[in-house]
């Protein structure tokens, strides 16, 4: 059983700090909402590392928004719904496609510089987009540019206080209202930060897998703490594997952007043969789940651990100009993008599920909001359309800030029962525990799943639950506990969904089953699993 809190504490004995709004996490969702919220409120931004450490920083492709005259919100809507494989919430998609362009204007106004060509925004295409609608920066360093601009803004604001290297252990709730958070300072001491509103912007769960495009901080902290606090969690079985991450001895699984395929790159097996022709009419730009599974199949057929991505037929000048970051990175491993085929394989990339929110980013707990990858707004359905995530963060970030402005001051007096006493002590071999978890996830809850494997995976994960018997103190221990929580939520949801759709593929139920399964799987700590039908 996953306990309500990770550590034992008595609220009365903890130092207390008061602010208007707490923002946890420093990716695009955290930075953007903090800046917007600071126009009206005092904001405390808490990061477990620093403002420059987030998944956003590694985003290459860009941000999808309807900018071109040839595009329309309706086209963007259709592309998003098709990629989402019948599980998108159409109201949330409408919000995204109509409010995206204004959000982009905000980003520009906050100092982000997107690439311009012939006096207009340069727009690229990625998988499953029918139009060129993806803005990018410095070619393939969009996330880094957004983080640069927004973090500079954040640091300048007198209304935003930043706590780096602080760990949020848990949400403090009382009668289904979030009162604030329990924080551990770098020296190990703890305090209670009370706020009128708390926004989780903690990103995804990439570290559930050994092979991931995500940095090591992507440990599902927000989802796990919201689950412990009783929030509704949704669609955790839908995990997106990016088809093309660098797969080269000694190199991390560096992202090789889908924009490469948008600009003409093709996939080849180790025999040099293209294979997407036999899989999907959109070829290399088919939805991500389709491309990722096709790659794995090709790897199996050719008994190889990778396939190649090939853009050598495009001009070397264009490739270097458009993908300077990927070009330079590959070169450090002796691979020249302009003349070599680059070995790639799928890697965990994005969690479609997360904390269920309404159209204002509000979770099922009052005064608790979720923004960005940690949330399940309903935009992505079973499979996220490329580059929709940065847009989702700004569109729903704006809405969250509007909603918070309408909140009354919350009642500050409440009586929280003390939690039980667990021994505090160093945990053995946490690195091994994390590797073991990642191994279980890859083996049983990867790109291709089946009922027997999922049962086995859940059984093995449950053996690790003893971690909750100690009072957790170190960052690695807390991250492991959060990862384990997310691993269980994902694998149990995957076992329940007996069909294949988007980012969830069951070889024992290989078809999409709209009659039974056009619905979400929800989980809540005290209520177990329930279902929610899709609203068109
Ligand atoms: C990419 O550049 O391929 C990743 C973009 C995304 O995941 O949205």
Topology at a glance:
Layout: E1 16-24, H1 28-37, E2 43-46, E3 63-64, H2 73-83, H3 90-109, E4 116-117, E5 120-121, E6 123-124, E7 134-135, H4 142-156, E8 160-163, E9 167-174, E10 177-184, E11 190-200, H5 221-228, E12 233-234, E13 239-246, H6 258-262, E14 266-268, H7 288-301, E15 307-310, H8 316-322, H9 324-331, E16 342-351, E17 354-356, E18 368-370, E19 375-376, H10 388-405, H11 430-444, H12 451-462, H13 475-496, H14 514-517, E20 519-524, E21 528-533
Notes on the structure:
- With 536 residues, the protein is α+β, with helices and mostly antiparallel strands.
- Among the domains are: 242-348, Succinate dehydrogenase/fumarate reductase flavoprotein, catalytic domain (Flavocytochrome C3, Chain A, domain 1, Alpha-Beta Complex); 430-533, Fumarate reductase/succinate dehydrogenase flavoprotein-like, C-terminal domain (Methane Monooxygenase Hydroxylase, Chain G, domain 1), CATH 1.20.58.
- It is 32% helix and 19% strand.
- The protein contains 14 helices and 21 strands.
- The strands form five sheets. Strands 1, 2, 8, 9, 10, 11 and 18 form a seven-stranded mixed beta sheet that branches. The protein has a five-stranded mixed beta sheet with strand order 19-17-12-20-21.
- Succinic acid binds next to helix 6.
């Amino acid at each position: 059983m996953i306990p309500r809190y990770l550590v034992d504490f008595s609220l009365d004995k903890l130092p207390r700090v008061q602010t208007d709004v707490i923002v946890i996490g420093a990716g695009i969702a955290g930075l953007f909402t903090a800046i917007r919220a600071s126009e009206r409120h005092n904001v405390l931004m808490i990061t477990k590392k620093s403002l420059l450490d987030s998944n956003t920083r590694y985003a290459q492709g860009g941000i999808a928004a309807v900018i071109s005259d040839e595009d329309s919100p309706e086209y963007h809507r259709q592309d998003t719904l098709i990629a989402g494989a019948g599980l998108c919430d159409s109201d949330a998609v409408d919000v995204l496609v109509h409010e995206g362009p204004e959000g982009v204007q905000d980003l520009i106004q906050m100092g982000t510089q997107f690439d311009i060509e012939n006096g207009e925004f340069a727009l690229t295409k990625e998988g499953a987009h029918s139009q060129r609608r993806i803005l990018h920066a410095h070619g393939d360093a969009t996330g880094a540019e957004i983080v640069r601009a927004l973090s500079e803004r954040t640091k300048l604001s007198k209304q935003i206080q930043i706590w780096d290297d602080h760990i949020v252990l848990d949400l403090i709730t009382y009668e289904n209202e979030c009162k604030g958070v329990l924080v551990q300072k770098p020296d190990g001491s703890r305090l209670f930060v009370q706020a009128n509103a708390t926004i989780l912007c903690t990103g995804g769960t990439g570290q559930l897998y050994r092979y991931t495009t995500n940095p090591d901080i992507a440990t599902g902290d927000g989802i796990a703490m919201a689950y412990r606090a009783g929030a509704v969690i949704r669609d955790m079985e839908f995990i997106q594997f990016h088809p093309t991450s660098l797969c080269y001895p000694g190199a991390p699984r560096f992202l090789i952007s889908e924009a490469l395929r948008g600009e003409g790159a093709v996939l080849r097996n180790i025999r040099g043969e293209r294979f997407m022709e036999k899989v999907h009419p959109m070829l290399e730009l088919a939805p991500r789940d389709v491309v990722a599974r096709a790659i794995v199949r090709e790897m199996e057929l050719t008994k190889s651990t990778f396939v190649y991505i090939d853009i050598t037929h495009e001009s070397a000048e264009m490739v270097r100009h458009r993908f300077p970051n990927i070009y330079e990175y590959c070169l450090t491993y002796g691979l020249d993008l302009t003349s070599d085929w680059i070995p790639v394989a799928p890697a965990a990339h994005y969690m479609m599920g997360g904390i269920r929110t309404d159209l204002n980013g509000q979770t099922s707990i009052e005064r608790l909001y979720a923004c960005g990858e940690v949330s399940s707004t309903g935009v992505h359905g079973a499979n996220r359309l490329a580059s929709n995530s940065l847009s989702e963060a700004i569109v729903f970030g704006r809405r969250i800030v509007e909603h918070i402005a309408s909140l009354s001051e919350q009642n500050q007096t409440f009586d929280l029962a003390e939690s039980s006493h667990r021994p505090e002590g160093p945990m053995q071999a946490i690195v091994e525990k994390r590797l073991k978890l990642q191994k279980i996830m890859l083996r049983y809850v990867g790109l291709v799943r089946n009922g027997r494997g999922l049962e086995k995976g859940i059984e093995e994960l449950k053996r690790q639950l003893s971690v909750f018997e100690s009072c957790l103190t170190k960052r690695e221990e807390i991250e492991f506990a959060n990862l384990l929580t997310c691993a269980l939520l994902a694998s149990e949801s995957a076992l329940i969904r007996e069909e294949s759709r988007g980012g969830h593929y069951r070889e024992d139920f290989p078809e999409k089953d709209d009659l039974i399964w056009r619905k979400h799987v929800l989980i809540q700590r005290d209520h177990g699993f329930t279902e929610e039908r899709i609203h068109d």
